[in-house]
Structure formats: structure tokens, C-alpha cells
UniProtKB/TrEMBL annotation, chain A:
It catalyses: Cleavage of peptide bonds with very broad specificity. This is Proteasome subunit beta. GO terms for biological process: proteolysis involved in protein catabolic process. It is found in: Cytoplasm; Nucleus. PANTHER family: METALLOPROTEASE TLDD (PTHR32194), PROTEASOME SUBUNIT BETA (PTHR32194:SF9). Residues 240-271 form the Proteasome beta subunit C-terminal domain. The keyword Cytoplasm applies.
UniProtKB/TrEMBL annotation, chain B:
It comes from the Eukaryota. Signal peptide: none annotated. Belongs to the POMP/UMP1 family. GO terms for cellular component: cytoplasm; nucleus. One of its GO terms (biological process) is proteasome assembly. It comes from Oncorhynchus mykiss (Rainbow trout). Keywords: Chaperone. Pfam families: UMP1. This is Proteasome maturation protein.
Length: 277, 142
């Protein structure tokens, strides 16, 4: 479609042309007693602790959209690099896209330089990106990883603030989880004890917060590798719907079988040479 | 990547101007091409990020060149800007797709992915501009 009023190719990146229209629409909708759909938030409990051998991250699996649970098996622990994982709270799409971009950038970097990325590099990239957009990208992230300098746990806020701490909780259930962590955290914990502590912290977040619920995922990052346990603990109110409704082959029994071979005879044969020069 | 020392370089940032005045001939609002105008639309950004995103790349470049000049002397940003200018001149005509390969390599955009690469990719744009109008605009004849 050729329009004569386009004098330059539009710039890539965010396009703000429809903002005033959207604001006007929002005003119209409110007046007409209809509401615009709310974006899916992860209204979460996420927690992380640094233990002796590595970093343990935990998250619940509920995603809400307004007052409705939109996803009961949401994966909130995102892959960044082989030695780093990131839990995300806030708007679900923002956390996923931001962590995807971070992961791609780090992959390019490690391909270019031949090194495993460090956690500080990931944190700086995130901080630059989130500060540039002044908090419009609603992503609160907990980044944990093991690199050549040790085990690290960082938090990145939606406006670009970072903090390097040994234990951490974010999301709508963070106060409940932080209570458990403050009480029982000790530096240089053993792995099993750390997993149990994170599980208890997420559990208290699930019990005390409406926006968190369903299963608990745990991700253990050590120098040897990553153990992503999903789900670490399933809630007893499980979703009993099957995702697949296909029948197994052999469900209906075969009574008779009749095979009729098709008889073909060659009528005409032509050969055309292809020019493969 | 962002360089630190933003505060000292703020004096070099691009000043705030109006948002896209479409001036036609004789310096008057071009109603035929860009529709009715309102002073509010032109002066105030409709979104908090609109202004900062419009000038983001320019501001980054200015800041980086300033820093480079302070560290290495005048020759360093001069040489770089000369290369940028040369790379910018070898694009195709405005209504055709240019790959910007040399420019991207110089700026370091070939080693990073950001929202500019994902959203509103010019090669996937649904609007096709009129070639003659776009050439006239580019040459300043419009």
C-alpha cells in the first residue's frame, strides 16, 4: 500500500504513534463500563540464596491477570547462560523479553570472546537496558550465577537499581519469604539445607500472598552444572486436565484387514537432461 | 554500552525540540500530508519515553565522543566521525532497503541485540513510501 505522506522510513524500535489514541480509547472505555484487558503479571514470590557450593533460586508458578489466575504452570526461572539463571517478577512479557535479550547478548559475547560471561556483565547490561526505559519495562529480576570469581546473587529493579546480596526475595510475596530467609539464613550453607530454606521461603510466600501459588520450582547452580527442578514440589490442588487428547495407537481393535495392491504399468518414459553447470 | 560520567557530559546533549513539525513549502503546517495539527501535540510528548528515545542514539554518541576526546585527544573522535560519515554515505536510495552493514560494524551494533532489532524492523514495514516523494524529500526539493 503506497501512502504519499511517508517521507522517511520509520525508525526501528519503539513506536509512539498510537499513544494518544490509546489514552483516548482508555477514557472512552472507562465511561462505557468496559475495561481494557490487563497485561499478565507474575505477582510472584521469587527468592534466591548464595550457599557454599553455588546459588539456589526458587520461584512459584502462578501468573495472574487482574483477579484471575492466567497460568498455573508459569516458568519464572529463565535461562540466561549455562552458568546463570534469572527469576523474574512483574509483567510476565517484560521479564521474558528482557531475559531473552540478555541471554542473546551474552551468547554473542561469549561466541566473540570465547569466554563464559560473568554475572556482573549480565547485571550491567540489564541495568543499562532498564534505566534507559525509565521503569516502563516492569521487570524485577533476581539474577544468580556461578562464574570464575565466585557465586553471585544480584537483584535488578524495574528502574535500574541493583544490589548484590547473599539472600533475596522479590515479588508480591517477598515480605513473607524474606521473613523466613532472615530467620534461618546462615553464610556457607550446605546445598540440601539451602534448597529446603528456599522451598520454605517460597512456601510462606504462597501461603500469605494471593498473587503467588501452585507449584514451587527450584534451580540449583553450581560450578559443575545446573539442576533445574521443575516442579520441586507440586501443590495438592493439581490441574487434572490432560493437555493431550489423542488416543494411543491400538486403542480401537482391528477386526479385519484387506489389502488391495494398485497395479500400475509404465505407459511412457521421457528423459530430460538438467543443466547443472 | 553506557559510559559513566554522564553528568559531566550533559552539556553536550541534544536539546529538546518540538515533536515532528511537518513543515511544507513556505514554512507552514502541511495539512494535506500530515493532517491537522495542534500545538499541544507538537510541543508535548504523548509518552514519557518519546523524547528520550528519539534522541537516545544521538546523546549516546555525543557522550562517547566527548569522553573519547577527553581521554585520547581530538584526533580520536575526528577519525571515528569521518568513518561514520563515509559509511553513512553508501546507503541505497531512501525507499529501498539498505543493510547498513558498515555503519553497524562501526557502531558495534553487530555484536548486540536490542529492541531496535526486534520491533518495527524496517524490512518488515507495511508502509511503502512513494519513491518520487521520498527522493524529493531526501534531496530537499520538497
Amino acid at each position: 500500500m503506497a501512502l504519499s505522506n511517508v517521507v522517511e522510513t520509520p525508525a526501528s524500535g519503539f513506536n509512539f504513534e498510537n499513544v494518544s489514541r490509546n489514552v483516548a480509547l482508555e477514557g472512552l472505555l472507562e465511561g462505557g463500563h468496559t475495561k481494557a484487558p490487563k497485561p499478565m503479571k507474575t505477582g510472584t514470590t521469587i527468592a534466591g540464596i548464595v550457599c557454599k557450593d553455588g546459588v539456589v533460586l526458587g520461584a512459584d508458578t502462578r501468573a495472574t491477570s487482574g483477579e484471575v489466575v492466567a497460568d498455573k504452570m508459569c516458568a519464572k526461572i529463565h535461562y540466561i547462560s549455562p552458568n546463570m539463571y534469572c527469576c523474574g517478577a512483574g509483567t510476565a512479557a517484560d521479564t521474558e523479553k528482557t531475559t531473552d535479550l540478555l541471554s542473546s547478548n551474552l551468547t554473542i559475547f561469549s561466541m566473540n570472546s570465547g569466554r563464559n560471561p560473568r554475572v556482573v556483565m549480565a547485571v550491567n547490561i540489564l541495568q543499562d537496558m532498564l534505566f534507559r526505559y525509565r521503569g516502563q519495562i516492569g521487570a524485577s529480576l533476581i539474577l544468580g550465577g556461578v562464574d570464575c570469581t565466585g557465586n553471585h546473587l544480584y537483584t535488578v529493579g524495574p528502574y535500574g537499581s541493583i544490589d548484590n546480596v547473599p539472600y533475596l526475595a522479590m515479588g508480591s510475596g517477598d515480605l513473607a519469604a524474606l521473613g523466613i530467609l532472615e530467620d534461618r539464613f546462615k553464610p556457607n550453607m550446605e546445598l540440601e539445607e539451602a534448597k529446603q530454606l528456599v522451598r520454605d521461603a517460597i512456601h510462606s510466600g504462597i501461603m500469605s500472598d494471593l498473587g503467588s501459588g501452585n507449584n514451587i520450582d527450584i534451580c540449583v547452580i553450581t560450578k559443575q552444572g545446573v539442576d533445574y527442578i521443575r516442579p520441586y514440589q507440586e501443590s495438592e490442588y493439581k490441574d487434572k486436565r490432560q493437555r493431550r487428547y489423542k488416543y494411543r495407537p491400538g486403542t480401537t481393535s482391528i477386526l479385519t484387514e484387506k489389502i488391495v495392491p494398485l497395479e500400475l504399468e509404465v505407459v511412457q518414459e521421457t528423459v530430460q537432461r538438467m543443466d547443472t553447470a | 554500552m553506557n559510559t559513566r560520567g554522564l553528568r559531566s557530559q550533559l552539556k553536550d546533549s541534544v536539546p529538546v525540540t518540538g515533536m515532528g513539525q511537518q513543515v511544507g513549502a513556505y514554512g507552514v503546517q502541511d495539512t494535506l500530508r500530515s493532517g491537522f495539527s495542534s500545538v499541544k501535540n507538537e510541543l508535548l510528548p504523548s509518552h514519557a519515553l518519546e523524547l528520550s528515545e528519539k534522541n537516545f542514539q544521538l546523546n549516546q554518541d555525543k557522550m562517547n565522543f566527548s569522553n573519547l576526546r577527553n581521554i585520547q585527544g581530538l584526533h580520536a573522535p575526528l577519525k571515528l566521525q569521518m568513518e561514520y560519515r563515509a559509511a553513512r554515505q553508501i546507503q541505497r536510495l531512501p525507499f529501498l532497503q539498505s543493510s547498513h552493514l558498515a555503519l553497524d560494524t562501526l557502531k558495534g551494533n553487530d555484536e548486540s541485540i536490542s529492541f531496535e532489532d526486534i520491533l518495527n524492523d524496517p524490512s518488515q514495514s507495511e508502509m511503502v513510501g512513494e519513491p518520487h516523494i521520498m527522493m524529493e524529500y531526501k534531496l530537499g526539493l520538497m
